[in-house]
């Protein structure tokens, strides 16, 4: 059974329906409860939950659930249409990717927890999964809170200048409401400090490993977020960074 314990926290796969519901409750708390969008039953659930692996990060001493995410393994790019991301992005370019892939989604941390070791353990668990499954590309949607793009102009300008997807994999527009930041901000010079401060932690992690993003953000009013498609080819991770990840995963 997959599992990882480091310091105060341990990561494991959900063992049954009760674990999945615990993850759905935490997702609801993180995504909806503090934004006036509470849902019936206090759960964030969708059809993808039934076909995904769910990873729980818990505090060892108390057993409290502090973070979670879900994983959808794909045999290759030919299955990209099965992904959650494919609802929002036209991903036909990625259908040519031949290696194993995994979509990471619904990543969240309990809003009262701010320990950076939680993210570290989550990435260690992801690294172990990637290595054991022979995954060659990790992808998903990285979200900015709120739907006002102007609040993140420096971050989006930095993405446009340094972190756009290679043309051969570039996602195209599919969603009806998008912010084409690569076009709008192509001449904007970002303030690096403000850009990094506004960048979501998950996205920063992707980028430090060599990840890339779509040239537009989807305006998701249901989740009250702006999100960008994010991809990471495992072989592109810098060796020093890969060693650090595997040290946590080991």
Describe the model.
This protein is an alpha+beta fold. The chain has one domain (72-249). Helices cover 29% and strands 26% of the residues. The chain has seven helices and twelve strands. The strands form two sheets. Strands 1, 2, 3, 4, 6, 7, 9, 10, 11 and 12 form a ten-stranded mixed sheet that branches. It has a two-stranded antiparallel ribbon with strand order 5-8. Helix 3 crosses helix 5 (192-198). The protein is globular. The two termini are 15 Å apart. The model has no long low-confidence stretch (mean pLDDT 93).
Question: How is this structure best summarized?
Answer:
With 250 residues, this protein is of the alpha+beta class.
Q: What would the average pLDDT be, to the nearest integer?
A: 93
Strand content: 25-35%
Largest sheet: 10 strands, mixed
Please provide the count of β strands: 12
Pairing-aware structural class of the strands and helices?
alpha+beta
Q: Helix-strand pattern, N to C?
A: EEHEEEEHEHEEHHHEEEH
General form: globular
* pLDDT < 50 runs, ≥5 residues: none
Distance between the termini: 15 Å
Number of domains: 1
Overall radius of gyration: 17 Å
Estimated helix fraction = 25-40%
Helix tally equals 7
């Amino acid at each position: 059974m997959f599992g990882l314990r480091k310091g105060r926290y341990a990561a494991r796969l959900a063992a049954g329906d009760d674990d999945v519901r615990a993850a759905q409750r935490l997702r609801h708390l993180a995504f909806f409860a503090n934004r006036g969008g509470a849902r019936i039953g206090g759960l964030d659930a969708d059809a993808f939950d039934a076909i995904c692996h769910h990873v729980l990060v818990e505090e060892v001493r108390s057993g409290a659930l502090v973070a979670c995410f879900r994983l959808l393994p794909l045999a290759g790019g030919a299955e990209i249409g099965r992904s959650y991301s494919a609802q929002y992005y036209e991903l036909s370019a990625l259908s040519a990717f031949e290696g194993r892939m995994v979509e990471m989604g619904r990543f969240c941390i309990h809003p009262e927890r701010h320990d950076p070791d939680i993210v570290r353990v989550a990435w260690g668990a992801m690294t172990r999964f990637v290595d054991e499954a022979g995954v060659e590309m990790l992808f998903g949607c990285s979200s900015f809170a709120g739907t006002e793009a102007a609040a993140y102009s420096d971050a989006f300008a930095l993405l446009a200048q340094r972190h756009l997807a290679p043309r051969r994999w570039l996602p195209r527009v599919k969603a009806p409401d998008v912010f084409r930041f690569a076009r709008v901000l192509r001449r904007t010079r970002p303030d690096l400090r403000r850009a990094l401060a506004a960048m979501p932690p998950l996205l920063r992690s992707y980028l430090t490993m060599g990840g890339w993003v779509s040239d537009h953000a989807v305006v998701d009013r249901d989740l009250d977020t702006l999100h960008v498609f994010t991809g990471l080819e495992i072989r592109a991770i810098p060796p020093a960074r890969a060693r650090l990840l595997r040290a946590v995963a080991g």
